[in-house]
Amino acid sequence: MANKIAANIQHRKLLALDRLQKRGIVQSNICFICGITPETHEHLFIFCEYSRRCMELMQQKLHIRFSAAYMVTWFSKNRTKSRLQRVVSGACFVGLISGIWHVRNCARLSHQVTAPMVLVNQVWKETKERLIHKNRKDA
Q1: Residue 73 has pLDDT above 60, yes or no
Q2: What average pLDDT is seen over the chain?
Q3: Does residue 1 register a pLDDT over 80?
Q4: Which of 5, 62, 109, 118 has the fewest Cβ atoms nearer than 10 Å?
Q5: What is the pLDDT of residue 21?
Q6: Which residue, 104, 74, 113, is CA-closest to 92?
Q7: What is the DSSP letter of 80?
Q8: CB burial class (10 A; 0-12, 13-18, 19+) of residue 123?
Q9: Cβ count near 66 (within 10 Å)
Q10: Nearest alpha-carbon partner for 116 in 107, 103, 130
């Protein structure tokens, strides 16, 4: 599920509010999470203060540092990290992006936003469990 959401983001297929407004489906395109800025793909996943905080917290857990906008290039071209480090980092950030989309949808429906630390810890735990399970299957 997370990989599908990440692919849809990459190809700009998720219906962020800016696209829904252009289609006449919604009147307001203000981000459900921050309530300040119009919701676009760039805002929701890179520039929204919530997403930025989630990215910072995940970077701290992974002991890496880079801007969110640089993320895609980092995973594809950074050869100073081991393959395992790239796989773990990639899985964490795909999970985080999926989690941000989920938080956005929950905010739209219930007007509640999960704290960034709670989301990051949840993604961290789920990613470790998935990678351990995958490693056991491959062994």
Answers
A1: no
A2: 81
A3: no
A4: 109
A5: 80
A6: 74
A7: S
A8: buried
A9: 12
A10: 103
Burial profile 81-102: b = 16 or more Cβ within 10 angstroms, e = fewer:
eeeeebebbbbbbbbbbbbbbb
DSSP conformational letter for 38: B
Q: Which residues contact 41 (CB under 8 A, 6 or more apart)?
A: 9, 12, 14, 16
- The CA–CA distances, whole Å, from 90 to 16, 83, 114, 129 equal 23, 10, 22, 15
Cα→Cα distances 91→10, 109, 125, Å: 15, 27, 11
Q: Any bridge partners for residue 30, and if so which?
A: 38
Taking alpha carbons only, the member of 61, 40, 35, 60 closest to residue 50 is 35
Question: Where do the H-state alpha helices sit in 63-115?
Answer: 71-77, 83-110
Structure-token pair, residue 2: 């997370």
Q: Which of 12-16, 20-24, 42-46, 52-56 has the lowest mean pLDDT?
A: 12-16
3-state secondary structure of 30: strand
